[in-house]
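Box 4.2: Ligand-aware structure prediction
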Amino acid sequence: MKRTIANAIEVRPLDAALGAEVRCGDLRQLSDGQFGEIRRAWLDHLVLIFRGQSLSGDELLALGTRFGKLDDTPRPQPADQPGQHRQQMALSIVSNVIENGKPIGALSNVDLVWHTDMSYIEVPPDASILHALEVPAAGGETGFCNMYRALETLPPTLRARLNGVSIKHDATHNSGGFLRKGFEPPADVTRSPGPSHPAVRTHPETGCDTLYLGRRPYSHVQGLPVVDSEALLDQLWSHAARPEFAWYHDWAVGDVVIWDNRCTMHRRNAFDNAARRIMHRTQIKGTRPYADAPQHQQPSHPRGLRFGATL
Ligand code: SIN
């Protein structure tokens, strides 16, 4: 059901597991009151889409600062792929376009696997924002999935196995499957680099628990032999990646999408490399993932399903 709130902001929840389209006019002109409503909608719907925007790089960063502190730490990145160069991180470019023999941005045109942004560092970003400047006629859609719902619908025996469990998030490869610069391919996932985060994390703003998987390749359930860790991760991933938890955004020029990295994962479909896709991107600093004690009764998220419910 669509909701029109103060100051002519309209929040239209998508008919999907997550996401809402927000109609609010020019994102550069929002009052603090309007922005407060947008932040509430973001926490409720996990991913927000704003259409028809035209933001310069600086204006996108200004929008980002309304969500929190910009994550401007340089990260090991586009250099992951041959010929790519390093960029300052507050504003980055996601693109397959090559100019003067060099990629202008990261991630090329390839399929990106399900992942949560930068869960391979100790304090991953809360939010990421993409603004579409050029898009291909087909392909390049970005999928998002609802990790509150993934957690709340786990079979109870599987859910119980996650109490107190941490997962090591691989730092060696990016979401396109490329080895990051300066890393070796992991010979043993129990010893490879990457931080451990709780498999179930408590969202610091909603207070709801969510499944926190990061990305599948090279991850490891701490304390388990590799064979058992792989079996548990396979079970979790086949559940979390169910199509009914996901929604795909088909981009148009001018779209701005912001997602919550604490309770969603995302992936991208490949697209024809002869087409151009240029996105401006920024991200918002986060806080260290934590889990409330399992006996603590967590609220169910409005876009989740109560624990143990069947689909
Ligand atoms: C990303 O994974 O941050 C990029 C998503 C996209 O290119 O759609």
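In the box above, the bound molecule is succinic acid. The chain has one domain: 3-307.
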